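User: I'm curious what two different proteins look like when written out as structure tokens. Can you demonstrate?

Assistant: Sure. I'll show them one after the other, since each token string lines up with its own sequence. Here's the first protein:
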Amino acid sequence: MGFLMSKSMDQNLKKQQEFMVLNSRLQMERQIQMQNQMRERQMAMQIAWSREFLNYYGAFFSLATLGITAGALRRKRPGLFVPLVPLSFILAYQIDLAYGSLMHRIKGEAEDIMVAEHDRLALPHGTPTFESIEKARRVQAHLFTEK
């Protein structure tokens, strides 16, 4: 009788362990999916911000170009066109960021860094561990209870 009960308990324990592993895996997959969606939303916000900024900068650049051109023609001084050079570089950068392939090139460069220069990505004091996080949490909780 004890043997059958022990065998049944072992089977229940195995089923429970399998369920826990499956549940942990599902939780991890959900967390990865959530973090990826948050990353995608942040990138979409950055691109949208760049496009909005480009609208304002484009208007500024157009007005500045008209003003500088009018002033240079009226005074007959071509040196007044000099500020348009850096302003045009900024405009080209913003166009590339908002509508061009800059984000793809940045992504490619980041992937190259992760492969070829992985040592540059190390965090100070290494990757946080459960123990280091728990220690910091205890210190913070202790400070909070003292107040």
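Here's a second, unrelated protein for contrast:
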Amino acid sequence: MSNRHLFLVPKFITTPSQNGVGRYVCQLQRVVLKFCKNNGGSRGMREFIEHDLINYTKDNPGTVVYLKPRRHRGPVICAEYLNGEKQSIFCNNFSCEEIAKWLNLLLTQSGNHEGTRLRKMWHTENPSVQGPWTPYTFRDPTLNLAKFPNVDLSTPLSCPKTATEHLLELFEKQKNEKFENEKLD
């Protein structure tokens, strides 16, 4: 076991429990778009501000968006969440579409990032090296590329015969053999 966990901030989950059961509360509180008016690396950020920022703010009225022009510095997206966490993304030479994707990702996150060690109610001295099991662990990876609705996936799988069906076939086979032997005699 490594000592990496010693440098992480221990805390409990502070997001509202069951977020989305009654109504969903977006955890992203504030976004600050920092950019340079002249720097070539900020071109994608400036294009996003000119063309897509109004639509983004209309689609997400619960998130406050600030614009902060700075001289001779690269573009940065700073996000602040309801639980007090802050996250910064340095987006030098990003396109307008990439900026929109990053903002959408920040919008859907809860603010808890990888630098947080979440406490659990159980402990083991020998943790599993295989990782946690999920329902998708042993799924066929070709299902990731399947187009739905899919005729092949909607038909029932051809299951092997059960033991009862096998015994019934053997019984019918013996019965037919016995009937043929009696016919020959």
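A detail about the second structure: The radius of gyration is 30 Å.
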